[in-house]
What we know:
With 119 residues, the protein is mainly beta. It is 0% helix and 48% strand.
Amino acid sequence: QVQLVESGGGSVQAGESLRLSCAASKNFYCMVWFRQAPGKEREGVAGISGAYSADYAESVKGRFILSRDKVKNTVYLQMNRLKPEDTGIYYCAAGGVRCGLSASSYQNWGQGTQVIVSS
Length: 119
C-alpha cells in the first residue's frame, strides 16, 4: 500500500519559515505539494520531477524551495517569508510523469499537515 506521510507543519508569525517533509513508501517520478485554505479549493504549490526539475505556483515563487532526496523517497518544501495567505492544510501527492500542479492528476495523497501563519 502506497503511503505518503507529511510532517513539519505548525503555527508561525508572518515573515518566518517552516520546512515541510513528505516521505513516500516508494519512489515516484513526480512529487507535488498542494494546499487548501478554509473555504477554498485545493491549489498546487510546487512540484518536482525525478530529474530534479521544480515548478512553483506564482504566489510562492522566490519564497518556497522544493527539493528531494531520492534515497529517502522524501521531498522537502522550505517555506520562507511566510504570509497569512499561505495558511492552509498542505498535502503531498505523487505519481505520473508530467509533474503538473493540477490535483486531478494524482491518485496518491498524504493526510496533510496544517500550516497557520499569523499576521
